[in-house]
Structures are given as structure tokens and as C-alpha cells.
Design goal:
Blueprint: H1 3-19, E1 26-33, E2 40-47, E3 51-57, E4 63-64, E5 70-71, E6 78-83, E7 89-93, E8 113-118, E9 121-129, E10 168-176, E11 178-181, H2 185-205
Antiparallel strand pairs: 1-10, 2-9, 2-11, 3-8, 3-10, 4-5, 6-7, 6-9
Helix pairs in contact: 1-2
Length: 207
């Protein structure tokens, strides 16, 4: 996760906070694929009032996500890290234990499962592959496996049980006001420019 992407993550959090609605708490499901072993997928979410939030993956052992969709097994061994609006590390999770199903192929319970009582505000959660943990104490400090030399540190999604997995991930964020993946840098820049233009138009029309 390079410096440019970290800056984009902070900018995305600002844009996300400005555009989040006053919706009631809900569950959000996301799916996607990594391009290389050391990728990190970031999500921003908003908590409208002090509450317990659940963060979990489905892609290692498979199952039915919060949206009611069946997720295939066979994904890489995921880990997650949670940060507050200042980018300060809060908690992480490697394996969900008895809270997640066992994979049919490996027998391992490697999907993540984390519940955390959070105050109202905006947060960021990162999904990465074991053992690409956050360096901490801030998101801007990056991750253990950052850098070109570590792009294939798991030899194409090889897990610790000795099985080759694939690149897909599936992630739920439950009981939050709003949630979205952090966009690619180019998309985020366009969105920020659009919001700035909208603000300018509003100022002009109010004169």
C-alpha cells in the first residue's frame, strides 16, 4: 500500500463523511478480487450512534452473506484491521474461530469475525491476506508486506495449510449507517472534483 494510496484513503474518508446520508443502521455486503498477494482493500463506514458493529468475511469457507447471496469457498486466508477517523489502529482479527464455518477442503476456520463497540463516527477497515498485518499504530504506517518485493509473498494465495486458494474476497459490514469501498485513486479524484464543483455552483447560486 503506497503513500499515494494512503493519501487517497484519507481523502476518500473525507468525501465519504460529507456524502453519508442519515439512513438507519443496515448491513452491507461487498465482493471482489485481489490482483496480487499483498493487495489491501479498504472500506469506509459510518456509525450513526454508539453501537456494536460486526465485520466478517465469507470467502475462505463460503456461506450466505448479509445480502442473502451465496459466496463460494476457496478464497485466500483473510485478515482485517480496524481504524478510527484519525487513522488510529483500533483492533484486528485473523481467524474467526467458532464464529465462522470450517472450510470443506482444509478444515480450517480462517474467515475473519470481529465485533466492536464503536462510538458515532467514521471508520476504516482493511482486508488483506495473512500475514500482511497493519504496521500500526496508524493506517498511514502501511502494512507488513508492502512493496514490490512482496507482491507474491504467499506464492499466489497459498495458505498455511498448504493449499492454493484463489483471489476472491467477500466481506460484510453489519449494523452501520453507511459503508463503501475506498475507490481507486483516479475515481476518487474525479468524485472530489465533482463535489468541489457542486459546492462552487451552490455558492454562486446563493449570491
Amino acid at each position: 500500500m503506497n503513500i499515494r494510496n494512503r493519501v487517497m484513503a484519507l481523502l476518500s474518508m473525507l468525501v465519504f463523511a460529507l456524502t453519508a446520508s442519515n439512513a438507519l443502521a443496515d448491513n452491507y455486503s461487498f465482493t471482489g478480487n485481489f490482483n496480487r498477494d499483498n493487495d489491501v482493500q479498504l472500506f469506509n463506514f459510518t456509525v450513526g450512534a454508539d453501537t456494536t458493529v460486526t465485520l466478517r468475511t465469507w470467502s475462505y469457507a463460503g456461506g450466505t452473506n448479509a445480502a442473502g447471496n451465496l459466496v463460494a469457498s476457496g478464497g485466500f486466508d483473510p485478515i482485517l484491521a480496524l481504524f478510527n477517523s484519525s487513522g488510529l489502529f483500533i483492533d484486528d482479527n485473523d481467524d474467526g474461530g467458532s464464529f465462522v464455518p470450517a472450510d470443506a477442503a482444509s478444515g480450517a476456520r480462517y474467515d475473519t469475525f470481529l465485533t466492536s463497540f464503536l462510538h458515532a463516527g467514521t471508520y476504516t477497515v482493511a482486508i488483506s491476506q495473512y500475514d500482511n498485518f497493519a504496521n500500526g499504530p496508524y493506517l498511514s504506517d502501511g502494512f507488513v508486506r508492502d512493496g514490490v518485493a512482496n507482491e507474491w509473498f504467499r506464492e499466489h494465495y497459498l495458505d498455511t495449510s498448504g493449499l492454493y486458494r484463489d483471489s476472491h474476497w467477500a466481506f460484510d459490514i453489519e449494523n452501520v449507517q453507511a459503508a463503501s469501498p475506498v475507490p481507486e485513486p483516479s475515481t476518487l479524484i474525479l468524485l472530489a472534483a465533482g463535489l468541489a464543483s457542486l459546492g462552487y455552483i451552490r455558492r454562486r447560486s446563493s449570491k
